[in-house]
Fold this sequence. Notes:
The chain is α/β, with parallel strands linked by helices. The chain contains 18 helices and 17 strands.
Amino acid sequence: MNMRSSQGSNDNKDAEVLRHPVGAQEQSREPTLARTPDAQEHALPPTEPRQQDADLRLRLARAEAEARDLRAALERADRHMSAARQDEAHLVAELKTSYKQLQVLADELTRSNADLERRVAERTVELEEANAALRIRKQQLSLAQRSAGAGTWDWNVAANHVTWSPECYDLMGLDRDGDRPLPPHRLLSIVLPEDLPALQRMLEITRDQAEDEFRVEFRISHPHRGVRWIASLGRVVERDPTGRPARVTGLALDLTERKAIEESLRRARDAAESASRAKTSFLAAVSHDLRQPIQAAALYAHVLRGSIGSDPAAVEVLDLLKVSIENLNGMLSGLLDLSRLEAGAVDVAIADVAPGELMTRLCAEFRSMAEEANIDLRFVPTSLAVTTDPHLLERVLRNLLSNAVSHGAPDGAGKTRGRVLLGCRRRAGSVEFQVCDNGPGIPPEARGAIFEEFRQLKNPERNAARGFGLGLSIVARIARLLGLEVSVRSVVGRGSVFAVAVPLARTRVVVRPPAPVALDAAVLAMLKGCTVLLVEDDERIRRSLTMTLTRWGVRVVAVASVEELTTRLPRLRTRPHVLLTDYRLPGGSTGRNVVDLVRRRWDVPGVIITGDTAPERLREARSIGCRLLHKPVEPAELVQALGEVIHRA
């Protein structure tokens, strides 16, 4: 601004100089002075030429200075004109650019207006369609509410009144008062007194707390339908500035029919559970009671075997008696296992299992039986681990091996040696256990029937030595219980492969090899002179066990009940080497009670004998550090068990 103002003042001066040159001013002054009377009176005498020449030079200098000033002023004016022209050009260019931009903006605005009009038209159509759909949805909701016995409500918490849908009025049995909302106490007036506190508490919590949703169930007294169960579900949809609920909306449902169904289901479930408990108790009692005489007979036969000497006829009769006892025990075990599975009395305990040790033990168990049948029994060791119930898996593999050894020998087995192989293959996410044989095979039409109870191929004479037809049916039931798949592949004349797929374990299972057990002779020598505390309520088994143990050189302290043990225990002067007890005892006592009672005084290893084959018995015995034997117990098995627990102690 200062530059422009100074420039403007210079322009004015230059203009003034142009209008009134200095020479002209002086010329105009001189005549005026000459004409003034005072000037005439005081007129100087004529000057000399030298003075005139000086005046002329002075005037000339002044004129030159004025000319220079004039030229400078002209140059400045020219520069100003050039700058003004440049400013004008820039201004014109800017105006053109602005005009173009305004024109582009105008085009864009026109297009935007057209697009906006199109969108408004589309949204208008969509809004009309949405409104039409909303009307349909409202009609459908109203129909659904009437069909489902439901109604909607809206609670204005600040005003403390509730707006109900027509369905809600019908649900509650209240009359509408025009379009006026109802106060909450109208609802409270029809709620049964015993349910009123819970509903009031829920309303207070909803009003005061920050919960977004709630549900409450209560009963009302309907004027026409009697007592009805109502469920009210609410959600906070608005809050005041302090965060407290301001508006709550929700749904009311009639639960009366559902409550009646639930009550019927509860009663049916209770009855089923009661029946299941009764079945379990019955099967456990039957298993115990039926195995008792078999156990006594087996022990008496063992005692008798040591008393008859070398009489061939007596030995033959005794061997036949032993076979009969074994067959009876096998049939009884199969029937009881099948009954427990049918009754749902088998508990499942899933764990990670390393089956290698199990496969080794099972093959050792069936080796003598396989040799008698002229069968070469082998197995392929594995380091894989699976996830399943270990005890039920053992029963599946045992039954499959028993079936293969009993029926897997080829026709004419005396000429061709049979082969049975136990192994496993890793599949996608599972381990498939396989029992293979080179037996006669199974015709395709019979492969489904072999899993039925008492169905045996090529055993019409019902030879007990080949089983009773229960093994594969038990395998199928256990597999179904565990959610496993059992399959069979067979070629007639070449053999069969039975397979069961078990889930692969996600973790590696470390297997500790069992402690070695001495041979029978060495174990008997170790048992000689030991004291066994025997608890058995059945007199026959108690006497037969006492006789058997005594023949082995064992000192026996025998009692019949926990009560007798409580009396005898304080009088025992020396600690027994091992505790041998039945599991099921009079008065509801169990072998665990016996173990706990004895171990209050001494830390004694224990062996529990039971006729109950339920897996939970084995888990219970292991939990208290005892060995479990299932009746009927073979004398050799009893020797090994007693020697094992004494050795480990």
